[in-house]
Amino acid sequence: MNEVVAAFLGMIILFPFIVTIAFMVVMRKMGKAPASILGLAADVTTPLLFIAVYVVSRAIFGQGIWVYIIGIAIIIAIVYAFIERSKVKEFQIARLLRKTWRFYFLVLLAAYVILFITGMVMKIVEYVR
Predict the structure, then answer these.
(1) pLDDT digits over 72-96, tens only?
(2) Element (H, E) at 30
């Protein structure tokens, strides 16, 4: 039983979009509009993408990569706060957090795809040698 749970959690961590698709299907069955659930699905997937990017990058590059992931996330939050503060008179933290979280989703999605392709290419090259 423990092996099944470990395999399931490993699959969710390595392929976080399984959760996204499952979330969207469940919300659609509940009668929610597809446009409104896309943002919620991204919100649910973002923490899994943080973990997936860490796991894949650690498999490719080794130890110490988490520092860069957290550092980039903090820099993004600071830059977004400055941009939001200069654009809007009334600074709303909830709005800033939502925008930052959704931007994290886009950045992590791109990083995940790039890392996944890089890892696959490296393994193919290693196999061919």
Answers:
(1) 999 999 998 998 888 887 878 888 8
(2) none
C-alpha dihedral (7, 8, 12, 14), degrees to nearest 10: 10
Residues 6+ apart with CB under 8 A from 109: 49
Whole-structure pTM value: 0.83
Give dist(CA 56, CA 66) in Å, integer. Answer: 11
Amino acid letter at 31? G
In DSSP notation, 99-120 reads: HHHHHHHHHHHHHHHHHHHHHH
Greatest CA separation found in the chain? 59
Indicate the DSSP class of residue 22. Answer: H
Environment class of residue 45 by beta-carbon count within 10 Å: exposed (0-12), middle (13-18) or buried (19+)? buried
Q: What residues contact 80, with CB distance under 8 A and at least 6 apart?
A: 96, 99, 100, 103
